[in-house]
Amino acid sequence: MAWLLPWGMVLLPWGLVLLACGLDRLIGDPPAWRHPVQLMGAAITALRGLAERICGSSPPALRLAGGLITLVVVGGSGLVGWGIERLALGLPLLGLPLLLAGLASGLAGRSLEQAVQAVLAALPGGAAQPSAAASSAGGSYAGGSELEPARQRLAWIVGRDVAELDAGEILRACAETAGENGVDGLFAPLFWMLVGAALWSWWLGVETGGRLELSSWPPGSWPLGTWSLGTWSPWSWPPGPLALVWMFKAASTLDSMLGYRRGKLRWLGSAGARLDDILTWLPCRLVAFSLPLLAGAGLGSWGQFRRALREGAPDPSPNAGVSQAAYGLAAGVRLGGVNRYGGRERAKPLLAVEYRAADRGGVTAMLALSRRLALAWLLGALPLMALLQGLGRWAGAGG
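Above: the chain's sequence. Below: its structure in token form.
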């Protein structure tokens, strides 16, 4: 067992992610705090204005400017995250709180859950569950001014028009948001956070290979840099979980602000939108694969995964339809249909058509699935990181 690293080093990168998840679950995104995404958004707004003034209406120039904006915002966000990581490694008493707060800011699990639950709470009691007739017909079963509070809260978390939604459509919007944003706001950033932690795990293994034995580990020492291995410098560590998750959040913010197929944004926002699609592609499919296993599909899990890919494929987004289909199938909730955006109707693919229409129980089940799946991902990542450190140490020792 000499090739294995001390458990303190195995737990270090993974433990940072675990603490960040716990912090997000505990406090979410306090409204009084300045969120990093707000700073990213301010930079994007300023750069967009500059690009539009310089490029005018020239599509090639706008595409080039969009690529440069993406490079600056995503690269700059990663660089700031990398700097905070260096601070945490060099001055842990000062840097570690900033690192944990930054990591927690990359996750939107609690804030998404609170936002969806706020819409459910604003629905009138009689509108919480659709009648059988309304569910099968897709019609309204509650309306009027009593739904206005729920519509107003829903408008904060969806891009569709909400002014004319009935209670059934509000519930469907909540369910679709719980599924799509469960990937965008929780699992995609968690994935990139774990990738950054895995990079640190491998690096720890390689750097200590052949020159650190279990018996030589100083009891009670902090297993970072110069505190236990005097040859290490904080600047020698590779980019880690904060650098990667903030780069992802920057791409996601670019997509949400510029990724529209209208006007100048058709060209200016294309680079950010495509990068966000690329960075979300694998986490989305990992969610679609792991959700059936968690939901108890058993031997049918592979077939359910394939079905989510198939039913989500017609969606214009390469990820939104797949994530919604995965959640709809796992929770047994029918999703999809006609939405209105800017007054124009857009038909989305029907998903999990044999199941019940979205109701309060279905939405709540989706939120619960996200909580359980996040825990499963964290627990599954621990042995993988331990193995990665062991292999890194073996490689560092020359095989």
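The first strand starts at residue 333 and ends at 341.
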